[in-house]
Amino acid sequence: MGISAVVRFRKAAVPPCNCGSSIAEALTLDCKYDSLSTSWLPPHCRDDEMTSLFEKSGPGPNGEWNYYASNFNTSKVFTIEEMALMAEKPDSERQAWATIEWHDKHCFFTLLKQVRGRAKMQYTGFPSGTAHAEHCAMGMAERRPGKQIVVSMNPGFGDAKPSELKMMIGHMGHQ
């Protein structure tokens, strides 16, 4: 079996990271909200240990992260539970913001998750693990102040929609 055949076989063997289009449907598919991916994910796409460590690595009490309603106003902050519920809202209401520090830790823990889950390429929100790794490396190399609120996210139900992929790819060069 050649290398390309192995790659095709491996891609075919990895089930999608789709959790439907509602919280009720996600729960019936054994999905749960994963704050590291800002998405509802099935068990084969999560690394609950990495997510738990990520949720305790922020600057807030008990290592919590802040998720802001705006990149200009820090008065409205969402909890992880509110982020999970946001996935059901219309696209125009599914946006939250975080700091560069959040982004760097998200990248760090997502890369660890990918290394730990090599045999099952888990959801990263990018068209490939390589694209996400490149995005993370570029972002961390910029060394912008960690408190800047410039990271936009749209909680969802697993694999990114084509429109979301376009937006993510467009932001790979960073602002």
Care to describe what's here?
The longest helix has 17 residues, at 100-116. The strands form three sheets. A two-stranded antiparallel ribbon has the order 1-2. The radius of gyration is 16 Å and the shape is globular. The chain is an alpha+beta fold and 175 residues long. The model is unreliable at 1-10 and 167-175 (pLDDT under 50). The protein has one domain. The protein is built from seven helices and six strands; from the N terminus they run H-H-E-E-H-E-E-H-E-H-H-E-H. The protein has helices at residues 3-13, 23-28, 48-55, 80-86, 100-116, 129-141, 162-170; strands spanning 32-34, 39-41, 67-68, 77-78, 96-99, 149-153.
Give me a quick take on this structure.
The protein has 175 residues and is an alpha+beta fold. It has seven helices and six strands; from the N terminus they run H-H-E-E-H-E-E-H-E-H-H-E-H.
Any descriptors?
two-stranded antiparallel ribbon, two-stranded antiparallel sheet, 7 helices, 6 strands, disordered C terminus
Write the layout of secondary structure elements.
Layout: H1 3-13, H2 23-28, E1 32-34, E2 39-41, H3 48-55, E3 67-68, E4 77-78, H4 80-86, E5 96-99, H5 100-116, H6 129-141, E6 149-153, H7 162-170
Antiparallel strand pairs: 1-2, 3-4, 5-6
Class of secondary structure makeup? alpha+beta
What's the total number of strands?
6
Order of helices and strands: HHEEHEEHEHHEH
Largest sheet at a glance?
Answer: 2 strands, antiparallel
Query: CA-to-CA gap between the ends?
Result: 44 Å
Alpha plus pi helix count: 7
List low-confidence stretches.
1-10, 167-175
Radius of gyration: 16 Å
Average of the residue pLDDT scores: 80
Percentage beta strand: 5-15%
Shape type: globular
In helices, the fraction of residues equals: 40-55%
Strand order of the largest sheet: 1-2
